[in-house]
């Protein structure tokens, strides 16, 4: 029988470390990391029609309509680098998106879900210290993962900035939406016995270690 390739879906509240950890895992496994948040920010930066439409939602911490997200994801998954597996960060986010993804991948891929758990208080702490590079997408934290040179990106030297949707009121909205929508992902992972739950409230290195350990067990 043909073996399905593994894919990994990171989910967790805003600021839980999905982006940070999915990039570590991508490097370890040699798989592309596909982040819908990153793809949307890229589309916005080049002022594409899709990016401009999405910006109205992202700015206010609202979920971008499924149709747009599906368009982005379906296009990205057609690229050759995703043929033998990939890592998803921030997609799917709810029951409808999970359903869309399962239809899209059919039995070609087997999804594993990685839940990164952190408290609301930690979310606020993390997001208030986050700085991002709009040029290459790298992300830092002023205290926990500071850039080497002041406000400049270690990777490309570009000036770092605060994400538009990291304002406290917008973060509260994103957090509330996450709580409303993530249950189906948990339920699906549990039912399929392909759920890895990680305590995200540890150092970046320890979270990475826990994820790698769990992944090594399933390979
Ligand atoms: P997206 O970019 O996906 O935002 P999010 O899910 O809210 O997640 P974040 O990027 O805020 O956080 P993260 O968990 O990746 O944490 P990070 O590693 O950066 O989406 C943005 C918006 O796009 C959404 O609100 C929505 O509008 C739209 N969108 C995206 N996907 C969509 C979809 N599927 N459907 C519809 N709309 C969609 O870490 C955070 C900070 O903490 C960093 O500064 C980091 O350095 C630091 N940090 C990380 N880990 C640790 C640690 N262990 N200890 C201390 N600090 C840490």
What does this structure look like?
This protein has one domain (5-32, 79-218): 3-Layer(aba) Sandwich (Rossmann fold), CATH 3.40.50. Helix content is 47%, strand content 16%. The protein is built from nine helices and eight strands. The chain has helices at 18-29, 36-45, 49-58, 66-77, 95-105, 120-128, 168-181, 183-192, 204-218, and strands at residues 5-11, 33-35, 87-89, 109-117, 130-133, 139-141, 160-161, 195-199. The protein has a five-stranded parallel sheet, with helices on both faces. Strands 6-5-7 form a three-stranded antiparallel sheet. A hairpin with a 5-residue loop joins β5 (130-133) and β6 (139-141). The radius of gyration is 17 Å and the shape is globular. BIS(adenosine)-5'-pentaphosphate binds next to α1, α2, α3, β6 and α9.
Give a quick rundown of the structure.
It is built from nine helices and eight strands. By secondary structure, the protein is an alpha/beta fold.
Number of helices: 9
Small molecules bound? BIS(adenosine)-5'-pentaphosphate
Helix/strand/pairing class, anyone? alpha/beta
CATH architecture level-2 label = 3-Layer(aba) Sandwich
